[in-house]
Amino acid sequence: MPAESTVDSIQVHARAGPTRRAVLAAGAAGLALAALPLPRARGDDRRRLLRLAHLTDLHIQPERHAAEGVARCLAHVAEHARPDLILTGGDLVMDAFDEDEARTRTQWDLLTKAFHDGASAPVLHTLGNHDIWGWNKGKSRTRGTERLWGKAWALEALGLERAFNASTHAGWKIIRLDSVVPDPADPDGYIARIADEQWAWLESELKDTPEGTHVLICSHVPLHTATALFGKVEPDGKRRVSGGLMHTDNRRLLDLFARHPAVKCCVSGHTHRVERLVFRGIEFLCNGAVSGNWWKGAYHEAFEGYALLDLFDDGTVESRYTGFDWKA
Fold it and tell me: Is residue 97 over pLDDT 70?
């Protein structure tokens, strides 16, 4: 059973998780889907409407056999998970933020080929901060006037008209948010926030959701998370959460969701951690990283893996984080 603590209606389910050796052994035995199961939701008479494979933080690159790793992950999804949809969580390429045009092109070519060859179900893509080309103009040697500068390259490569989208599948509306805006204090940086145009769109999407339709929201940066508190304590004894680790409009988003009970689950990546947090009846799931620690092995409890989400007719969600038989 998980260790559980309750503070102000927040339930944080912390798991020690299997050892790295145990995880690799389970993967070799074909039992990876049993890794880190989360508690079964109430209701034995539920009907599963949709199965999603949530793949986040792939960080594909020419080095570290990353392209082989992504291909192996997609093959595992096809063979073992067999989802109705694949939902990506951003940071699809290792980095375009600081990189020049040639390096960025190489990474996107690897990514699009991997999904063209290996995706076994329709794919819904979400953008992350590493997918944005050239925002750090000094390191990327860009001017900001290039045709594909910023988010344009990712949108073109993924066939998207814009970075935030919504679609309904079998009684569930899946909303993909754009987490990343320029940092007003740093012209070469970013923070996590919903921009004004997207905010108006999100309010409209939630307001227009038909009664009986449940909502799952996918963002790259967590909308609500406890692991952002794992950072260092400042000399004054206070903990400060970076605007790059959790949405800075967190409270505003939570208040919006409270007005729309159709919102049942929010999934994210970015931190390369595995976490389940329940607040006001909404499940906030941070689903690790396909790349683990940028293809260098595990990052804390997040070995290289993805989450399998089962979405039910009563609005409940079950999630399992699984490896895909990969060794760094």
Answer: yes
Burial-class residue 146 by CB neighbours within 10 Å (0-12, 13-18, 19+). Answer: middle
d(CA 109, CA 148): 14
The structure tokens 């990052």 sit at: 299
Q: Quick one: three-class SS letters along 110-125?
A: HHHHHHHHHCCCCEEC
**Is the CB of residue 281 less than 8 Å from the CB of residue 266?**
no
Domain range annotation of the chain = 47-231+238-323
CA angle (229, 70, 135) in 5-degree steps: 60
Tracing tokens 């999407």 back to the chain, one arrives at 205
- Residue-wise pLDDT tens digits, 33-87: 434 444 444 547 999 999 999 999 999 999 999 999 999 999 999 999 999 999 9
What is the rounded CA–CA span in Å between residue 323 and residue 76?
9
Question: Structure pTM?
Answer: 0.87
Q: What is the CATH number of domain 47-231+238-323?
A: 3.60.21.10
Q: Which two tokens stand for residue 45?
A: 């008479």
